[in-house]
Design a protein that fits this description.
The complex is a heterodimer of chains A (90) and B (159). By secondary structure, chain A is mostly helical. Chain A has one domain. Helices cover 84% and strands 0% of the residues of chain A. Chain B is mainly α. The chains are: A mainly alpha (90), B mainly alpha (159). The interface between A and B is large, with 39 and 45 residues.
Chain lengths: 90, 159
């Protein structure tokens, strides 16, 4: 990138920090969501609410699958984009 | 004159690499933001959020990919049909202008794609239409110069 390399490095560092922050935040939100579903399922089982328990189990599994897909899919998509970055056509 | 043009094109190439790199960074971060929105939508039971986030994630990647694949092809097509008329200084000026217009046009199209990716990452849609307008303007300008430069060369009495 020549003369623009310092600019890119600075923005890339900021982006790395932002990525780490958002991933951490996502994990926290997912854990809180899992706790919420656990409480919902526990309450449902406690007073015989089978529908609540079923929703809670599906919710926890869906949350885990969603976060896993995000963590597995996004880096792959990022690699795909980086590999298809074109050279200057002029 | 060719040397000066090469220096300018070198700077443009570096700017191209910078914008392309930033576009990848923004696309990845935008995808993560959409995933965050998707997770929030799942937790709050908001189907609209989830569907918007899925569409947003795919939109970011698609716009970036389409930009990466189409802009070089468009730019090369316009540069190939560029200025070759005339001889002498007029021809050199024409070739320099063609190179610079191709470089600036390509950068402008990439900048438009960058704006579109940023807009989609934030959940907007206005940036995409603006980017398309900018790209269309650039293509029209690049095509226009292929007509205007030979006319100007003939006007100045080039062979």
């Amino acid at each position: 990138m020549g003369i623009f390399q310092p600019v890119y490095d600075a923005i890339a560092n900021l982006s790395r920090d932002a990525w780490g922050f958002m991933v951490g935040l996502l994990i926290i939100v997912a854990m809180l969501g899992g706790l919420y579903y656990t409480l919902q399922g526990g309450a449902g089982m406690a007073f015989g609410g089978s529908k609540m328990a079923a929703y809670a189990i599906v919710g926890i599994v869906g949350l885990v699958v969603l976060v896993l897909i995000a963590f597995l899919m996004l880096p792959e998509l990022g690699t795909l984009l980086q590999n298809s970055t074109p050279k200057a056509p002029f | 004159m060719t040397a000066a043009g090469e220096i300018l094109l070198g700077i443009f190439r570096q700017a191209w690499a910078l914008i392309a790199g930033l576009l990848v960074l923004i696309a990845i971060l935008g995808g993560l933001a959409q995933v965050f929105k998707m997770t929030g939508g799942v937790l709050l039971g908001s189907n609209v959020w989830v569907s918007q986030a899925v569409a947003g994630t795919l939109g970011v990647i698609l716009i970036a990919l389409v930009g990466f694949l189409s802009i070089p092809a468009i730019a090369q097509a316009a540069v190939i049909g560029g200025v070759t008329t005339g001889c002498g200084p007029i021809s050199e000026i024409g070739q320099l202008a063609g190179m610079l217009i191709g470089g600036i046009g390509s950068l402008r199209m990439l900048k438009g794609t960058f704006t579109a990716v940023v807009s989609v990452s934030l959940g907007g849609s206005g940036g995409v239409s603006n980017a398309l307008i900018e790209i269309a303007e650039t293509i029209f300008g690049m095509l226009f110069i292929t007509v205007a430069a030979p006319v100007a060369a003939a006007f100045f009495g080039a062979c």
